[in-house]
Design brief:
The chain is of the alpha+beta class. It is 28% helix and 22% strand.
């Protein structure tokens, strides 16, 4: 699975980074940056939860 951010919608609330810091990082530009291109296993479950909890719905998933 791959995470696809919509940086024009992201407001840098850091919910995703707080839930899965090994995948998400809020940069100095207050926008999400994806640290890991492909996720699977337990991390994938946590990423799905982070995507659901994004207050601006700035994240989506591409299943492979």
């Amino acid at each position: 699975m791959r995470v696809v951010p919509n940086r024009s919608v992201c407001e840098g609330h850091s919910v995703c980074e707080g839930l899965v810091p090994e995948v998400f990082e809020i940069g100095d530009d207050d926008r999400v940056h994806i640290l890991v291109e492909e996720v699977d296993g337990d991390v994938a479950d946590r990423v799905r939860a982070a995507v659901r909890r994004c207050p601006k719905q700035a994240l989506s998933l591409e299943e492979r």
